[in-house]
Amino acid sequence: MSDSLGVNLKLLCSHYRSIAEVCRKLGLNRAQFNRYLAGQSRPTAHNLKRICDFFGVESHELALPGEQFARLVGVRGNDKVSSASGDPLSTLFEPLREQSGDLSRYCGYYFEYANCMSVPGTILLSLVHVREENGTFLFERQERQVTSGGGHAEESARCRYLGAAFQLQDRLFLIDYESLTVNEMSQTILIPSFKSRITRLNGLKTGVSSGDRRTPACTRVVWEYLGTEINRISTYRQVMLYQPDDPRIDEDIRQRLAHAPVRDGLFEVE
């Protein structure tokens, strides 16, 4: 196998949204595949056959010089980058997509508990849905600032955030924007679960309050995993503001929001 392997593999991968997507479809280890791309390692005969079958090329073709291989697969020299490269924003985020870990195990629905930025002294319960779409991990967060309790509840604000999720090193990064008004963004950083079963994730969220002054704020958050399928109607009814002593907020959630240290090793996950 010639030194053209890495170059030719990169060209083939450019037809997909990310390297991570290629690795998932191939069933190959991401770190090992990166070594193939960098020319630091060569595939075993078994892995080489899997790669060739996946891309529809022959092993001897992967050894051709880069320009000759590009002509062979019908790609002109000025088309070696993906069509998305014409969009500066897509180009900016492409390294994040390529370096992000596989978030498949985190797909599903969550309750997000946070100290409300707009109504201090209350806990805001939101509904989050994380999903995979064409190799990219996206999420939606629904908020309603409805006061819990008796009487006639009035909905003072409803927000719908859309965003993208990435796993870099040992942290989950989630960036989103408010899609109904498009007047704010927020970022959440979570500590992933290292246990086989995901129950609750701890982290921090930064954003702004929904008041007129749009005050910047940061709060601890707890994500509680609900599963891949839920009853959306009954679940959404629970999305509202709660008083900290509300019996529907268990003691563990209150403690995590109020006292959980942020340092590694002390900021526990389940």
Task: Indicate the radius of gyration in whole angstroms.
Answer: 23 Å
Q: Stretches where pLDDT falls below 50 for ≥5 residues?
A: 75-85, 260-270
Percent in helix: 25-40%
Strand content: 25-35%
Strand segment tally: 9
Which architecture of the largest domain per CATH? Beta Barrel
CATH topology of the largest domain: Lipocalin
CATH class of the largest domain: Mainly Beta
The 3D shape can be described as elongated
Helix count? 9
Overall mean confidence score, pLDDT: 84
Concise account of the structure shown:
This protein has nine helices and nine strands. It is of the alpha+beta class.
Keywords:
270 residues; alpha+beta; 434 Repressor (Amino-terminal Domain); Lipocalin; eight-stranded antiparallel β-barrel; 9 helices; 27% helix; 30% strand; elongated; disordered C terminus
Tell me what the structure shows:
The chain is of the alpha+beta class and 270 residues long. The protein folds into two domains: 5-84, lambda repressor-like DNA-binding domains (434 Repressor (Amino-terminal Domain), Orthogonal Bundle), CATH 1.10.260.40; 104-259, Lipocalin (Beta Barrel). The protein has nine helices and nine strands. Strands 1-2-3-4-5-6-7-8 form an eight-stranded antiparallel beta barrel.
SSE blueprint:
Blueprint: H1 5-13, H2 19-26, H3 30-37, H4 45-55, H5 59-62, H6 66-72, H7 88-99, E1 108-115, E2 123-133, E3 136-146, E4 155-168, E5 171-178, E6 185-190, E7 200-208, E8 216-227, H8 232-236, E9 241-242, H9 251-259
Antiparallel strand pairs: 1-2, 1-8, 2-3, 2-9, 3-4, 4-5, 5-6, 6-7, 7-8
